[in-house]
Amino acid sequence: MKVHILDDWFDTLRGLPCFAKLKDHDVTVWTDHIEDPGELATRLQPADAVVLFRERTKITAELLDQLPGLKLISQRSVYPHIDVEACTRNRVLLCSNMHAGTPSYAAAELTLALILASYRQIPQQVTSVRSGNWQMGVGRSLRGRTLGLYGYGRIAKAVAGYAEAIGMKIQWWSSEAGRARASADRAKVAESRDAFFGTSDIVSLHVRLKPDTRGIITAQDLSAMQPRALLVNTSRSGLIAPGVLEAEIDRGRIFAAIDVFDTEPLTDAANPLLTHPNVLPTPHIGYVTEDEFNLQFSDIFDQVTAYAAGEPIHMINPEVRSGNKD
Known about the structure:
The protein is of the alpha/beta class.
């Protein structure tokens, strides 16, 4: 099959072991990014299959309607960036391994790294010493502090293990079902939502973005946080209600470490989430490691080869198989 891989910005995949799984296919790797659906459709005209890098490119009806030869979209994890109805209408099979039970350890590690970097002022200290100065301030220790984890899932549990190893205390908040699971596991659940935000030194968000979780973190939640508390978001920006974090940061009361943004790539140097001294921003690198890429794309390439063999796996819209383009 003619397989086109989008948005491999640093041409990483060709150097990973998993890439050998595509040896029997005609593979094109694109290392740039195109927003315009018409221009992207022109590029993808020869493609039988398109491989996605997470949510870097939106797959819209406008794009799919211009790709009559496309048969397969292969990716991993959730797919809010894909118009599944348009895929089905155009008889394009979407395959996506939801990897139940397998957390992104890379994202969990970045969460801990952001917490450490924020509390120890690592970016500011590096800037100071590189500019010919010495210490620029006094950081804070993490041992004995309370980490509030919002969302009782795989990544959050991995973060909890790391935090406990350095002597932090853990408390949880989640949906009613999530809190019930946490209680059944004898994990500490906060007495109330307000108590969770009000007694956590650090709040880290680990919730999937779905219609019922969009904007779930409100102005009231952030205003309940202690002065100098830290909010960490390596999950999805849409979990926080629009403008709420910017407004709270502007008050200068809390800190934030953010890996996800409403607009990505975010290159507006005037955006307060990039420039405010209380914010540590990173450019959505939670899953961006060679090891994580090899794990994820091994699954993605398996889906391509399974489809080529006539036995597709991890189908999201299997109904297209009854009238596929093969």
